[in-house]
């Protein structure tokens, strides 16, 4: 029996032990998603967002109906990032959530998942949506290929309310194409010159930095 063979066996045993530890930790995180403390549930869901496995996905979907709005927001962000198509109906239900943050994140998730059959669902939300939701809807509709909303989205960088300017700057990188990158850089640069608030200025600067780094 070679030393090389023994070394590989030892390495495999270490990996097996590590795998068992990881499984135990995932199960602990899933258990914490039902904890009485909303902060514990929120942190557990956020941690699960780093583990894209079927069992984890099922728990994140269950967290969409959590009593705490921040837990619901965290779950929506994860499902949007993972592009979980089979959670779309659950996400759409949250478009009428009592909390504006949840409604806004549900819109973003729908856009990121990318099902064009849901365009009409987002369009139906526009008449009853507040301004901070509308900028997300313009983002999601543009993301789904409805480019007539792109100009409305860009106008968010010039909105009178700084949080809408922040939202537009934070989302804009996900709308960049080879055709519109020059336009986006121009709009961001002009917005930066006019911006007076620290929060929106930081968001615009970060977007410009990332955009120029990618070119």
How many helices in DSSP terms?
Answer: 12
SSE class: mainly alpha
Low-confidence stretches: none
In round numbers, the mean pLDDT is 91
Quick structural gist:
The chain is built from 12 helices and no strands.
Please, could you describe this protein's structure?
The chain has 12 helices and no strands. It is mostly helical. Helix 1 (3-32) runs antiparallel to helix 2 (38-48) and helix 6 (100-113) runs parallel beside helix 8.
What are the salient characteristics of this protein?
mainly alpha, 215 residues
Helix/strand layout:
Layout lengths: L2 H30 L5 H11 L5 H9 L6 H14 L5 H6 L6 H14 L5 H7 L5 H13 L6 H5 L7 H10 L9 H14 L3 H17 L1
Helix pairs in contact: 1-2, 2-4, 4-6, 6-8, 7-8, 8-10, 10-12, 11-12
């Amino acid at each position: 029996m070679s030393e090389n063979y023994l070394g590989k066996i030892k390495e495999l045993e270490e990996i097996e032990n590590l795998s068992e530890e990881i499984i135990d930790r995932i199960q602990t995180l899933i258990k914490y998603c039902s904890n009485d403390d909303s902060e514990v549930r929120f942190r557990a869901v956020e941690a699960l967002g780093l583990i894209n496995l079927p069992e984890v996905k099922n728990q994140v979907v269950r967290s969409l109906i959590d009593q705490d709005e921040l837990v619901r927001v965290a779950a929506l962000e994860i499902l949007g990032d993972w592009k979980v198509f089979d959670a779309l109906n659950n996400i759409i239900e949250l478009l009428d959530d009592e909390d504006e943050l949840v409604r806004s994140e549900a819109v973003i998730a729908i856009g990121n998942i990318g099902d064009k059959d849901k365009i009409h669902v987002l369009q139906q939300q526009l008449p009853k949506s507040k301004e901070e939701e509308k900028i997300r809807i313009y983002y999601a509709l543009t993301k789904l290929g409805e480019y007539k909303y792109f100009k409305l989205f860009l106008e968010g960088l010039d909105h009178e309310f700084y949080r809408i300017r922040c939202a537009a700057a934070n989302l804009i990188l996900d709308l960049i194409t080879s055709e519109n990158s020059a336009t986006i850089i121009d709009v961001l640069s002009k917005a930066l010159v006019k911006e007076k608030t620290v929060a929106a200025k930081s968001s615009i600067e970060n977007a410009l930095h990332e955009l120029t780094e990618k070119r």
